């Protein structure tokens, strides 16, 4: 969802996070990942304007930061 909201492809996110496109695809398909990899992905997404929303009864989510 976050990647799509930015209009990024798998390779875009992988490049910005410093991981391989295969890693992004595996994680998006539900595979386990190292905490450091998840942190790198989150950092890249947050730097691009994604805000992670904690669970509030309806589940966790993301949104783009307002300009």
TrEMBL record:
Residues 2-52 form the HTH cro/C1-type domain. InterPro entries: Cro/C1-type_HTH, Lambda_DNA-bd_dom_sf. It holds the Pfam family HTH_31. GO terms for molecular function: DNA binding. It comes from the Bacteria. This is Transcriptional regulator.
